[in-house]
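Journal club prep — side note

Before the paper discussion, L.F. wants everyone to see what a predicted structure for a comparable chain looks like in token form. Sequence:
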Amino acid sequence: MTPAARHARARWWPAGLAWALWALAVLGFATVPWFDHLLRQAGRPELIQFNASGVPFVLAVVSAATAGAVLASRRPAHPVGWLLLAIGLLVSSNGLAEGYARYGLVARPGALPAASYMARLLVLTFLAILACVSFVVLLTPTGSLPSPRWRWWARATAAGPAVSGLSWLLGPGVLDPPYPPLASPLAVHALAGLLGVTGPVAFAVTGLAVVVGAGSLALRFRRAREPTRVSLWLRPSGSVAQYHSGAGASHAGSQPPAASRSAPTAL
């Protein structure tokens, strides 16, 4: 293989992977209307997910995933594009799992295997979505942390949802309505006291991480000079604007951003 062919292949595969992940996210959303149809047939229309109020949310998530696919295909070293794609995949997976669980646990109990596990998965995907949103706002726009002093907070941002998820899986908590109050099959009752403390604390850190990340982005924008402000092309909602000439050669040039040195290794 010639050097030119290797270079072309190296440029092609990130774009192919990005758009393949985008397609998976869109296909995941397509399962929600199907489960809604099954729920209506089962006489439980109150359990459907896709309605008029949910359309703006779905459009926003698909837009974010599309922006992530564009960014990841053009600048694969920038972590924010992959994080936006992860948000799209996680939200679509959450919708699939919720439709599966509502049909297999509530509408037609026992009709689908492992429905209780899918209901447990809902909390885990929700925590992962919060973690990705936190890192999107924390790493925007450069792909790196605001400064090395933020590394400890990046670790806390990654640890919060991980500890909260483990506490949910191993703790004695039961499913919330509309699901039956089933306990986790993985519950370790000897750790109930410890997990009852670590779980809420970790969940509080997970929610706080979104607020702190948004604050760091606002602080970056406020401190930036005018030409640098123009280069804040990536918004937390996922919209991507055009590059502007003179808006910072470090963002529009051929060199990738220095994300690998400061971005958390967990992602």
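L.F.'s comment for the group: The two ends are 32 Å apart (CA to CA). Keep this in mind when we get to the figures.
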